[in-house]
Amino acid sequence: MYLKMYHSPIGDIYLNSDGEYLTALCFKNTMDYYRYIEFGEDKDLQIFDETIKWLDIYFSGKNPDFIPKYKRNDITPFRQEVIDEMLKIPYGKTVSYKDIANFIAKKRGSKTMSSQAVGGAVGWNPISIIIPCHRVVGTNKNLTGYGGGIDIKYQLLRHEGVKMDDYIIPMKGSTL
User: Fold this and answer.
1) If you write DSSP's letter for every residue of 6-62 in order, what string do you get?
2) Does residue 96 contact residue 138 with C-beta atoms inside 8 Å?
């Protein structure tokens, strides 16, 4: 396992790689950091260079037009469906967990799909920002469910130009 740190304008980000693929990207000292980051050798790798280029573009206020090669362990078909939907969310836009659940249900020919199941799949994302789980919000624009913390979710959305006046910041919960 290899490790690299990136200094972003809103906090340090740690990157993991198996040597070929990005396996985690998490803000330091967050729930996701403690859940996904594995300590290893600090090494210059092509995948780290590619990911840092992506982050530099993103934090300069632009939408990167590529996705670094990533690999997620223990992927399930449902989690992949949710990832595919998250990757469709445009820069500077948000969708709700319910929106994703409804889209997947429709695609499957079902009447309903659990928003909580979608939330579980979104929350299993170790590739923060690149797989844009921060763009998924609760019903009525409730900023909930971000393993990087609600403050970072808020800052990422604001960075992308989302008008934050209509969003609700929860007063309690495990992802604050």
Assistant:
1) EEETTEEEEEEESSSSEEEEEETTSHHHHHH----EE---HHHHHHHHHHHHHHTT-
2) yes
User: Which residues participate in catalysis according to the annotation?
Assistant: 133
- Written as tens digits, the pLDDT of the chain (176 aa) is 999 999 999 999 999 999 999 999 999 998 888 888 889 899 999 999 999 999 999 999 999 999 999 998 878 999 999 999 999 999 999 999 999 999 999 999 999 999 999 999 998 899 999 999 999 999 889 998 788 889 999 999 999 999 999 898 887 654 44
Please, which residues bridge with residue 4 across strands? 15
DSSP 8-state class, residue 166: G
